[in-house]
Amino acid sequence: MAESSVALIVVLALVLAAEFVNGWTDAPNAIATVVSTRVLKPRTAVIMASVLNGLGAMSGTAVAATIGKDIVRPEAINLITVGAAMVGIIFWSTLAWRFGLPTSESHALVSGLAGAGMATAGSSVLLWSGWQKVLIGLAFSTILGFAVGWFIITIISRFFHRGTPGKTRKIFGRLQLISAAFMAFSHGSNDGQKFIGTFTLALVLGGVLPEFKVSWEVILICSVVMGIGTSIGGWRIIKTMGMGIVKLETYQGFAAETGAASCIELASRLGIPLSTTHTITTSIMGVGASKRLSAVRWGVAREVVTAWALTFPVCSAIAYIVAVVSQWAIS
Question: Which of 100, 112, 133, 285 could anchor a disulfide with 88, C-beta 3.0 to 4.6 Å?
Fold first, then answer.
């Protein structure tokens, strides 16, 4: 009994550590554009993001349920599975953060659970219903994110093409406060829920909860930890996302944030986990490409895409190895 309690505490600590790293690498995406256009100072933006991320996470539990119940069979895994997945996320995301590259915690999480789950119970542990949602989320975050960002900036350009730069900046500087808040809220409603679902899953596997049911206490704990992570290490990612891919004006920041947040919020209500990193990045690309393709710094974009592509195999492999070694060590 004591050993199982210690194991649960260790796994919960790993989940919170992964949520903290998520604050480093993923949550800054919600405020990168509003900081880069100088509408908000970094500290103010972080406070806003932390509060609205928490409110977004409290707005529903559909994504948390998908992560906790539909990616791998809960009855076939154990605490080692969850802990091994967290190790993969922490290692890979910290490495990417070191180089200022935003990673997809969504893909790191599902691939980590898959790798550790297969090490624990074989390939039959994977649930197609949940992976369908992951694939749909990939389409939402890439194709739809780019298209909606491009569409919104095209409409804005058509209606404001005669406006003076100073007046346009003033109008959209105010509007960007709303779009940045929307982006932060939507991030919480989708990405913030993922580790909340994982934390709850660990409580079920540890015997603390009789069934999968997200509590307000878990939402609060995870939201606070993510906010602390953003405040400590988020600037590297803000610099890459807000300044490295496209040089943004306030009207472009508004378009990118509104486009990305709309896609994310739709996915959240459908219980579809998607990458907020993918979504805001492709929305920024769509905004930049609407003017001319050369406006996008494709070299930086290529580095970001490479980090995404490596996330699935790297996190899955690390989680698999950690799960195998852990099971061998306790047997």
Answer: 112
Alpha-carbon distance 121 to 35, whole Å?
Answer: 45
Q: Would you list the DSSP string of 159-179?
A: HHTTS-HHHHHHHHHHHHHHH
Count the helices and strands in the chain (H runs, E runs). 14, 0
The pLDDT value recorded for residue 234 is: 57
3-state secondary structure of 78: coil
Question: CA torsion 224→230→233→239, rounded to 10°?
Answer: 180
Cα 123 to Cα 110: distance, rounded to the nearest angstrom: 14
Distance of CA 112 to the CA centre of its chain: 15
Interacting residues of 62 by C-beta distance below 8 A, sequence separation 6+? 193, 268, 269, 270, 271
Residue 240 burial class via C-beta count within 10 angstroms: exposed 0-12, middle 13-18, buried 19 and up: buried
> Does pLDDT of 317 surpass 90?
yes
CA contacts within 13 A on the Cβ side of 330:
10
Our CA dihedral for 20, 24, 29, 32, rounded to 10 degrees, sits at: 130
pLDDT score recorded for residue 240: 57
CB-based contact 204:30 (threshold 8 Å): no
Q: Which whole number is the average pLDDT over 232-238?
A: 61
Angle of helix 250-269 versus helix 276-291 axis, rounded to 10? 140
Q: What b-and-e string marks burial along 61-93, b requiring 16 or more CB atoms within 10 Å of the CB? A: bbbbbbbbbbbbebeebbbbbbbbbbbbbbbbb
> Quick one: DSSP state of residue 210?
S
